[in-house]
Amino acid sequence: MTTSLARPMTPTLPMVRRRLARRVALVSGVLAVLLAAIVAISLGTGAYPISPERILPTLFGAGESKDAFVLFRLRLPRIVLGVLAGIAFGIAGALFQTLLRNPLASPDIIGISGGASAAAAFGILILGVSGAMVSLLAFGGAVAVALAITLLASREGLSGYRFVLVGVGFAFLAQSVIGYLLTRADEQEAVAALVWTVGGVAGARWNDIGVIAVTLVPLLLLLAVLVPRIRTLQLGDDTATGLGLRVVSARYAVLAVAVALTAVATAYAGPLAFVAFASAPIARRLVGGAHLAIIPAALIGAIVVTFADFAASTLIPGVIVPAGIVTGIIGAPYLLWLLATSNRGRRNA
Amino acid sequence: MTTTARTPTAGASDTMEPVRGGAAARSRRMRRIVGLVASVVALLLVVVASLALGTRATPLVDVVAALAQPDPTNPLHSVVRELRVPRTVIGALVGLALAVAGCLMQGVTRNPLADPGLLGINAGASLFVVIAIALLGVTSPFGFIWFAFAGAAVTAALVYFIGTLARDGATPVTLALAGMAIAAVSTSIVTLLIITDVQTLATFRFWQVGSLAGRGIDMLGMLWPFVLVGLLLALFVGRDLTLLAFGDDVAKGLGHNAGLTRGLSAVAIVLLCGTATALAGPLVFVGLVVPHIARAVVGIDYRWMLAYSLVLGPLLVLVADVVGRLIVQPSELEVGLVIAVIGVPVLVALVRRVKGRAL
User: Which pick of A44, A203, B174, B221 has the fewest CB atoms within 10 Å?
Assistant: First the structure.
């Protein structure tokens, strides 16, 4: 103790940990408040404005029936779906990027979202299906691409670089399939498919939300169990093995959770460009250091999607803009700003 | 992205062996030359196939006759001269431009993932073309060329500029991230424009998949000088790119100006990608896959990689175009689609060949 009194400025490891934990808690708190504010604003605004003092009673079942209709049937579903999808994408992006040690490793870039889109476009344009069937196809497309990449990229375990490179190949392939389907389709149907491949929460229904919520809960519980293993994996394969972790199986487990999160969210909200890609870097920037920052990443994902949907619904009056377009437009400049102002090399990001 | 700082992938250890003039070096040199000659022969065969095959297969005798002594009354001759020759020349030019540009990009960014798609250049070109269609009413490929060209140029410059703004400068990671960000914005705006305007969608969707059909020789006449300048610049920086692969410090230590190499490469990339995109639309994969094949054969020597890219790029594009013409007769499949379908297995095979540690 005397030595630490003599050099009070030297932080010890527990001190650093505590400080980091406080920072994560603080950042998460601020983000949660921000999310709540966006939710409140989007509940009240629209073609039929509802004042704040009418929103709360209505939510608890004591409001006018017209308010209740607008809130429960129109606004709340898309907000809830936005929050859930944002959480799933934010976490999935963080997992992929950490696991594969590559900032480009996010489901939009390695073709998993692309696989979902291609399958959905095939369903809409060729099979002529709609609604839940499209979601099912999208889910299948995402899982199929993820499996294909994993099988093709693994050789003596999983190399992040190889995974990303094969994934980029699949992303291009998916893009070509969509392009092909669009050139062969009727124009109106092509627009419908295109809107789907961008992603959005405008068509949210409570049934879908039920499915996504029921799927998310076990996945998040599983993730909570896996978090210590992810932290060990972050130390590098050799250290992790030395600490007694079965590196390969741990990695596949985390990968499976990340793929499942992406597939579920994509099935109901579409690919929503950039959410998975940008949420984790933003979260890490706010929290600082090489922290995993899962909760902040989830909250940022939710904020980005709900804000994008709010902006999309008010952007061009009379035109339905899918939220995925706004996430692409607002997400990118933010990432560029991050790039331009980050203090340290992000080689390991 | 720790791994990519040491990009020299497949053959890095080969080239670094200091056996000058030894038997190993001689046999490696032989292998490179034999490989290149074989590629050239394959390319010639594909060129012939591209001139002869199509909805109306043409006997070789007629192909030769059409080129040597055209008979204006023979419809086969006019098919060869007016449709297949421009198409083949444009395909070859697009292929070599994209392959060489991809090679330069991977060298400059020290990132084996770099290609016109991932660095946002295709998306930028698409944005300009969509603006041309939606706001200016341009409808023909001939009208798109300058917009595609400008879009590619502006995006490449922007990505590079943003990359240099980062504290670390234009590192492999910052360039790739900047490219992704630009691509995301461009793609979003493109989608917004085409889903709100069915007319624009109708024109754009055919441009977007990438095709060699319906491009006249006159477009070629306007654009070939750009490819030539880009190519000369590429060959000029080839040696310096090899040094750059070992890091800026090494290059600097050997008295080379990394900034100048990057700048010249950037100009070459803009010229090559811009022309290719203007001619054929946003073709994916050529710029990614061809340099990888070249690297697998010759190692990290960029002069050899460029030489291989010059031959393998046209080979890939022409094979894809011929296949696309044959498989769904009497209709045809756009070259961009076929490239993706044959490119993925090639990429996967290459990626699997390389041992885990090297990456």
Answer: B221
